[in-house]
Amino acid sequence: MKCVKCESNAVISMMRHNAGFCKEHFTEYFHRQVETAVKDHSMLKKTDRIMVCVSGGKDSLVLWHVLNLMGYDTVGMYVSLGIGEYSIRSKAKVNAFAEKQGLKAIIVDLDEEGCPIPLLAAKTKRNDCSVCGQVKRHYFNKTALDGGFTVAATGHNLDDETARMLGNVLRWDTKHLSKMSPVLPEEGETMKRKVKPLIRLTEKEVAAYAFLNGIDYIPDECPKSKGASSIKFKEVLNELESSIPGTKHFFYGEFFRAAADRFPYVSNEDSELKKCIKCGTESYLDMCSFCRLTEKLNG
User: Fold this and answer.
1) Which residues of 134-163 are buried (b: 16+ CB within 10 A; e: fewer)?
2) What confidence tens digit (pLDDT) does each residue in 182-198 have?
3) Which helix (H) or strand (E) covers residue 31, if one does?
4) How far, in Å, are 71, 115, 130, 196 from residue 183 at the CA level?
5) Three-class SS state of 52
6) Could you give the CA distance from residue 94 to residue 59 in angstroms, rounded to a whole number?
7) Which parts of 102-127 fold into alpha helices (H)?
């Protein structure tokens, strides 16, 4: 296949666009997709101080790389989950990337904090992914507040968002469908605005960008995610995409064109934000969910 821009040999074929690109024009295409997402959804301003939530995987490191190239003020924020070798390797990737790019990374180590995910999940008898999400949200919000960040950016791509959307539609989970937007508004002081600039790009495209631009990342899925429903939803969507190119893009885009207004954003603005009696962060309860979770470590 030839590049649609310059007729040189293509390095990537994208059936959903019926196009192939050489390295130069694929990189140009990739950057334009991020710029379009940012502009169309009013995600970011050049005056923003952006906390990029990084995991050591391809999506978040590519996002950090691209936002930095676009001239935004960015700092990476990584939570080491305390999941053995996986956490050791992923933290190393984040530190190596930051050093190579001359960027700053903020590291929170859950082993040092005394609340690694495997221990918390065992003590609370809850699903690892559920516990992990709750703990990461706490430290992301706390770090954003303490660091004076105006927005948090995550590396969720088109595959991630369509899989989440499919799961929410199959369950008709109206609360979560109301929060499918790639921009979630801030609530109070602690919960900063959250944006997802990679929503126009597939997982395959992000992986290709990382490879072509020398971004070293941990390729493994989190070992605790085995059997997660999101993985099954991705597999189903990949089968559909293979047979009907453009399915993911159409599914995601048409939701916002034809259905999103039926699921208005559900905030907690009717409830009064308080200060958690234990850690002082904002909460709608006297004690925040993170502190209620970690209290069980002493039980």
Assistant:
1) bbbbbbbbbbbbeeebbbbbbbbbbbbbbb
2) 999 988 777 789 999 99
3) helix 23-40
4) 20, 30, 22, 7
5) strand
6) 12
7) 110-113, 117-124
